[in-house]
Records
---
Amino acid sequence: MARTYHIDVAAFAADADRKWVDNLVSHFDVAGVESARRGVARRIATGALYRIALIRRLHVEFGVAIAQAVHVADRLLTSPDAPVPIAAGLELTFDRAAFQSAIDARIAEAVETFRPAIRGRPPVRRSSLDQP
């Protein structure tokens, strides 16, 4: 079974606000993000963390609209290690290994730093005097 992470790890790995990541995965279909229903935390696979971080980088550093950044990130991460044609006469090269290594380091740091929030109602505390 593949390892999954929560939204705080994705936000840290992508160097983004938690709200930005939540809006991204709510409005766009990002491969590797599982969301069951309301009240159940999203599960984000490692591949999705790479996509989210690359989408963020394309959007912030190059000004690419998010919808286009989602498409470009998918093409860059799924293509073989060769230049990816983007438009007529325009190709992008991508050092996937270096990028994934950098994101893996951020994931490792985030896993040590963030714990998923405990969801639901807190357990009832009972003192020894309340017991029959």
---
Amino acid sequence: MATVSLNNDGVNITTGKDGIVIVRNLDSIRGGRSLDVTGFTPEVIQAGHLVIQDAATPPNFKPMPVNSGATAYAALPANHTYAGIVIATVPTKKAMVGILTNGTVNPNATPFPMTSVLSAVQAALPQITFRAD
């Protein structure tokens, strides 16, 4: 089970794309979830970031890993499934997020390109429509 620090560490957060990445929120995981951010290096988890779930230790939710340069999504880890999309930007140290499960996402506004994972995400999350504006 993930734990989250409530200390303010002065991380600068820009939420400029929050209003355009999640176009329509029809349903989400009730109450949101605290994410297990072990090994996740960015200081901020942005709206539109993919959330995955560890099938071996449910209900362990995590942000989708990113490559070493934090410029693209890394491969989906073994025994993990796509669970949803982060609704609002949060500091990684306070990884308490709302997770979209039904709605519309603008893939052009997501924090990392979706092209390499989009077909797998659409198959796993059929109630989320990905439509560029």
---
Amino acid sequence: MRRFLFGFVLGAASVIVALAGVGHYLAVADPIAHVDAIIAISGDTGARTDSAVALWKQGYAPVLIFSGASQDPQSVASAELMKRAAVAAGVPADAILTEPESATTEENAANVAELMHARNLRTAILVTSPYHQRRASILFEREFDRRGGITFRNHPADDPDWDANVWWTRDPSRARTLVELAKLGALVAGQRAG
């Protein structure tokens, strides 16, 4: 009986460690440094916007870039809503660029790369939700490499609704993470994932 109990506890601990490992793998983060721009892409925009604004206020970049369309074509673009929140938080409007056309992460990456290239912005910090950071990083790296030498550092948003250590214990964090894992798997397998 003791052996069974020990095996069960060891097995359960291994599963928990593996699930936490998945969370930490998704929430890729780099040491941050001063850059030309801070990019926040739409989605769960509250935490993403707040984290980007916090970095801007700490002086990590002179420019904020918000990227994302609205899910409803008749509504204001998410990028514009993010800009409004940043301005309300004290960021001057002229320190913010918006890219309001992107409907997918792949489009975010392509359109932001074009915007940065056109404005000769060469370095950035990429902010998105922690569970989305790994896939966004892959897509942004591909697009930035195509534009020749634009680089970025990953900085997952400080999201109070998602914890890398216990993401599987409740929804919506469990559902969002599982969807993200499926999209990441499709991307890695060479399929287009938005």
---
Amino acid sequence: MSYEVEKSDAEWRAELSPEEYHVLREAGTERPFVGEYTDTRTVGVYSCRACGAELFSSETKFDSHCGWPSYYAPLAGDSVEYLEDSTLGMRRVEVRCKSCGSHLGHVFEGEGYGTPTDQRYCINSISLRLKPAE
């Protein structure tokens, strides 16, 4: 797949910490309840930590109590891409940054949260960078 932001593996490794690289480029997952943005209430926009593309707004962030930041919709419909993920013996939908292909987390539907979309974008904090509103 071709992305707007393309870098070699060596370039990604040089720019990202080992933990960031593992999650963003190897589709890893950070431990629950330890992420920088799990409980933040700061108003602003969340961007991809790898390339800076704007992905989620604090307006769609909600408390899911799952251990990772949760959003009910991406900032713009085309800011993320979806891939079927059948790792770990289950069927899930992986969410990636559409600009650089970095792994963000997964999206789940039908869990009964009182959100407008009935979706939970379960996103790794380490995949994001928050730009507070001015």
